[in-house]
Amino acid sequence: MSVPTGTHQAGEPATDTARVSPPASPDPNTANAPNADAPGRSNGGERGRRSRSALLGALYAIPVPVLLVLLWDRGVAGAWLLPFGIQMEYLPAPYDVARRLVDLAFGGVIDDTYSGTLWEHLWASTRRVLQGFALAAAVAVPLGVVMGRSRTAFRLLEPTINLIRPIPVTAWAPLSLLIIGFGDQSTIFLVFLASVFAILLNTIAGVREVPERLVEAAAMLGTRPARTLYKVVLPAAVPSIIGGLRIALGLAWVILVVGETVGISTGLGALITQAREQSRTDLIVAVMIVIGLAGFLADRLLMLLVRLIAGRRPLIN
Amino acid sequence: MPDTLPTGAPRTTAAPATATAAAAGIEIDDLGKRYPGSAGYAMDGVTIDIARGEFVCVVGASGCGKSTLLRVLAGFETASKGTVRVGGAPVAGPGPDRAVVFQDYGLFPWLTVAENIAYGPKQARLPKATVRERTEAALHAVGLTRVERSFPHQLSGGMQQRVAIARVLANRPAVLLMDEPFGALDALTRSGMQAELQRIHREAGVTVVFVTHSIEEAVYLADRVVVMAGGSAHGNAGHVREIVPVGLPRERDTTSPEFNALKRRIDALVHQGNEVTAG
Ligand SMILES: Nc1ncnc2c1ncn2[C@@H]1O[C@H](COP(=O)(O)OP(=O)(O)OP(=O)(O)O)[C@@H](O)[C@H]1O
Ligand SMILES: [Mg+2]
């Protein structure tokens, strides 16, 4: 029986990129956090070395965005024509976007209906992401553990799951509006759908990689089979589960914009929709930047949480 | 904490860890195992009566079914024919009365040394104080008190195998099943571990079935050596060729003529018949 490991909605080999993230990640130190902690022998010297290399990582992260902003600025000024027919003259200049961002966050710069509303929208979106994501994790992790260990459960559920999985979440959006209605619930449902498969399939793959030896050890030490699932199988699969959670959290932010498009007045997606209706490109780009930052920060916070929970406990694999 | 101890040196650590384990005899009667999907029996017609508290070593060429025998005793595999009784009760699946020590340790990497050892007693839902007591005693018995808060990957192979032994001792098993437990260790560590195992066996009085590739190790440790032969490489099922009683007094001298005579005899038994297939 083969396990589909490419769990990304877009069919990318998401499992692998998430689990083996260090080389692909711009900052190996933070992306690699749980493993970097593993030796548990950290002393003052190592800690100092790690914070120095974190600083170095931050320094390395700066040049590329700066360069992009410079090119953006030159491109708008020179009305560049880029591939895909991108006409840069229609883009707002970086300065206008920065002004809009500051006004959106604190007001007092542009003073229109959007001034100072950022936090309200950000909070509404964050709440929906967290609820949908948490729900997805609560369903997918236990289900994945059972499906990874039980041939019967796998045979029973896998075909159905892989039939539903290719349906884009965007295709669910119109239906969910009709069967759930406008409002929070519909968005949370879409976030749930966007996250649940990534967590589920990564959990299944992780559970299948749990060394049989550990299950045997648990059995001969007197663990009842059902109890083995959470005493041994679950902890041994934690690295894959974390990989799944990271992908899922990213997808949750992606789907947010679609999920907040219709019938909702708060949220970053709603804000983008309103901006589009009024052709406010500066506002669109400003909100795009906010969503990007929010997704980025959410991932970093998730990894921080993992590190706090794990402490010096090694995560295997 | 050094990995090795002088061979045979009596340790000063007391034995409360293991003293009260109630050993059990093992009756293996015409035992056979055929793996699903394979044509013939991997092991067949194995009959051995092991007394309670006895130390039995199993030797034999690769593929003769030593691990298969041990896994059936442990309950990881079901017998295809014949029966196994431990302490009079037929074996049905793995259980804490039959401890297993694997060559690759099988420790839980996310638990500390102390947590690994406390794992079994906790599964048995023993009172907290008892769990603590047994953990400490087992740690003491294998001389690991100083690394109780370390994680397995921070320890050498020899120390990890001690944790594995302590982990099962804390469960007070009736039977100790060991499949090449020292196979991955260097010679020095290995002889230290052999001495320790002998001491634990003596103090705990537990019944031991010990699979090894080293005939010297078998003669050094065992009350009786089971020599197995055959296997799919020889076109038949693995079986018991002979059971050799060792009969030498304990604290055995591996350089003595008697020891070496026995070693040569078992070596001949192990290799007997291999030439036939080669020729
Ligand atoms: N899970 C399995 N499925 C099918 N055949 C198996 C399985 N495990 C072992 N065998 C076969 O059973 C026979 C006995 O194997 P076993 O592992 O018991 O030998 P062994 O004496 O322990 O060998 P070694 O000394 O190399 O460890 C071999 O022919 C092996 O190929
Ligand atoms: Mg073997």
Provide the residue-averaged pLDDT of chain A: 85
Apparent shape of chain A? globular
CATH architecture of the largest domain in chain A: Orthogonal Bundle
The quaternary state of the protein chains shown equals heterodimer
Q: Which class best fits the helix and strand makeup of chain B?
A: alpha/beta
Gyration radius from CA atoms of chain A, angstroms: 22 Å
H/E element string of chain A? HHHHHHEEHHHHHHHHHH
As residue ranges, the low-confidence spans of chain A are 1-42
* Strand count of chain A: 2
CATH topology of chain B: Rossmann fold
- Main sheet record of chain B: 6 strands, mixed
Q: Given this structure, which CATH class of the largest domain in chain A is correct?
A: Mainly Alpha
Q: Architecture of chain B, CATH level 2?
A: 3-Layer(aba) Sandwich
Radius of gyration of chain B: 19 Å
Summarize it.
The complex is a heterodimer of chains A (317) and B (279). With 317 residues, chain A is an all-alpha fold.
